[in-house]
């Protein structure tokens, strides 16, 4: 028969993190930076960094492969780093 242990949320969280650190290298746990974004996020990102453009132009640039992006099914995915590098060039 299984034993049921009752504990506080913080204690449980620290136990899980401790066990995770044994299984995964530490740099993977602390590095949770996400570099990708969708078309809507890319549109806002470009405007925020001083490169505003109509959505139609962004769609056209992706269709002609003039802007760095990848297509997953019907979704376009952009890398922040690649997009900013493209915008500056």
Give descriptors for this structure.
single chain, 89 residues, mainly alpha, 3-stranded antiparallel sheet, 5 helices, 3 strands, elongated
Question: Can you tell me about this structure?
Answer:
It is a single chain. The protein is mostly helical and 89 residues long. The protein has a domain at 36-88. It is built from five helices and three strands. The protein has a three-stranded antiparallel beta sheet with strand order 1-3-2. The protein is elongated.
What's a concise summary of this model?
Helices cover 54% and strands 11% of the residues. It is mainly α.
Helix content: 40-55%
Count of DSSP-assigned helices: 5
Q: What separation lies between the terminal Cα atoms?
A: 65 Å
Lateral strand order in the biggest sheet:
1-3-2
Radius of gyration: 21 Å
Query: What's the total number of strands?
Result: 3
Unreliable residue runs: 28-32
* Largest pleated sheet: 3 strands, antiparallel
- Structural class by helix and strand composition: mainly alpha
Order of helices and strands: HHEHHEEH
């Amino acid at each position: 028969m299984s034993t049921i242990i009752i504990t506080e949320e913080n204690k449980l969280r620290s136990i899980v993190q401790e066990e995770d650190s044994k299984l995964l290298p530490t740099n993977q746990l602390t590095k949770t930076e996400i570099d990708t974004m969708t078309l809507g996020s890319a549109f806002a990102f470009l405007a925020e960094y001083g490169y505003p453009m109509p959505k139609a132009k962004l769609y056209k640039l992706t269709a002609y492969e003039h802007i760095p992006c990848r297509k997953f099914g019907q979704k376009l995915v952009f890398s922040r780093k690649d997009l900013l590098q493209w915008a500056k060039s």
